[in-house]
Design brief:
The protein is mainly alpha-helical and 408 residues long. It is built from 15 helices and five strands. It has helices at residues 4-8, 12-18, 63-71, 75-85, 104-109, 130-139, 144-150, 152-184, 191-196, 208-237, 254-278, 282-285, 288-305, 317-343, 350-392, and strands at residues 23-26, 29-32, 43-46, 51-54, 59-61.
């Protein structure tokens, strides 16, 4: 039995090529003819998601589904075939400790020469004599796979060096792109790179901002794939001398990191706008949850007052606070009325179903409104406390909230 996560990590591209499908790269996708009778390619692979789709047959899915399709076999046979073809380790008790070297293609993915160990940085004629180089070449004339059995420790050091070189290089690029997003509020692409990809069909209908953002997200997903695949090959390729080594802490998640970067950027922009408008030091001392409440209450005030004003004075918060309190009371009243109507109502009637839907909606509304109601109360209290601390330190630019009374 094979680990399904390892099986699913096998590249659809490699499986397609092994089955005889010729692929052409177009941006982030690969296309080819899955049937010899096709005039135009109907088979597509998305590299960033490792998925495929056959538009001619209306079928698609994972690498397991692809193996089932091209070889006409069931899922169990497909999993076993993938495990054997890509030399995965079995995870049943009989084979738990069995080690299998990587395939030649997998070693090549680590920028290694699989056919001869000596070709992997062992020979340097700048510092070695011809005789020394010849001796080293003779000593390490075996394949990398054979070397894993002859000298497991040195073999582990060798593939770790090559793998980490790839990972660290792409991690630098990955981190730089995330940092640029946080600093600039949009993903940065150099002018030269922009010119070379300006006519890429995948992005041709985008605005300049959309193009820049979409392309950099695409690049981050590419970096993620390379980093995580290299880590997978490293963990798989190491001889378990002292137990299994895990590098899971080095894995990246582009979707999660992009979302966090966008959130950090939004919070930064909001904080700067409030500092500019209120001109007080208190904003710097608010945490992200308090800042979010500040922003949500201002949005609510714009709606209640029918105003396009972006930021309202903190003294206006009592207006929003009392309105939210009334909303909670109104939702609670409607909720009780609906519950009362349902007690003696026929469960098959339309009005009964309408009340069920109303109750669900009211429950959600009450949760959201109560949360904002309490947060509004807390953020004003926190601002008061922060202001008092600043006063005690004789801090300049303090907000005046002494006249704010949420109880009136």
């Amino acid at each position: 039995m094979y680990d399904l996560n390892q099986v699913r990590n096998i590249s659809c591209e490699e499986v397609a090529i092994l089955s005889g499908i010729q692929l052409k790269e177009r941006g982030n996708i690969l296309q080819g003819k899955i049937r010899s009778t096709e005039k135009t390619p109907s088979f597509t692979i998305w590299k960033n998601t490792n998925s495929w789709y056959d538009f001619g047959a209306g079928e698609g899915g994972s690498v397991i589904d692809l193996t089932m399709k091209v070889y006409g076999i069931d899922s169990k046979t497909a999993i076993n075939k993938l495990g054997e073809d890509f030399r995965l380790r079995k995870i049943d008790n009989k084979h738990t400790n069995e080690f299998l070297p990587l395939t030649d293609n997998e070693y090549k993915s680590l920028n290694m020469y699989p056919k001869r160990v000596s070709a992997n940085g062992y020979i340097n004629l700048d510092i070695q004599t011809d005789e020394e180089a010849l001796a080293i070449s003779e000593k390490y004339k075996m394949t990398v796979a054979e070397f894993s059995n002859v000298n497991p420790k040195e073999y582990n050091d060798l593939i770790t060096e090559y793998a980490m070189d790839i990972i660290e290089g792409y991690k630098v690029r990955y981190d730089e792109s995330i940092l640029q997003y946080k600093l600039n509020g949009y993903f940065y692409i150099s002018h030269d790179k922009l010119q070379t990809i300006n006519n890429t069909s995948e992005f041709k209908n985008y605005s300049q901002y959309e193009f820049t953002t979409a392309y950099q997200k695409h690049e981050l997903q590419t970096y993620e794939k390379i980093i995580n695949k290299t880590l997978y090959l490293l963990e798989k390729g190491l001889v378990p001398i002292e137990g299994k080594v895990s590098y899971s802490h080095l894995r990246v998640d582009a979707t999660k990191d992009i979302k966090q970067a966008e959130q950090d950027t939004l919070e930064y922009k909001i904080r700067e706008e409030y500092k500019k408008q209120y001109n007080f030091s208190t904003v710097d001392l608010l945490n992200n949850k308090q800042l979010k409440t500040l922003h949500e209450v201002n949005k609510l005030l714009r709606l209640l007052k029918g105003s396009e004003q972006f930021i309202f004075p903190v003294s206006d918060f009592s207006y929003a606070y009392h309105w939210l309190g009334k909303q909670v009371e109104q939702f609670d009243k409607q909720y009780c009325e609906a519950k009362d109507r349902m007690k003696n109502a026929n469960t098959k009637t339309e009005s009964y179903q309408n009340d069920i839907n109303l109750i669900k909606k009211l429950e959600n509304n009450m949760i959201e409104t109560k949360e904002l109601f309490l947060n509004c109360q807390n953020v004003v209290r926190d601002i008061k406390n922060i202001e008092n601390e600043l006063k005690a330190r004789d801090a300049p630019q303090q907000v005046k909230v002494q006249d704010l009374d949420l109880e009136r």
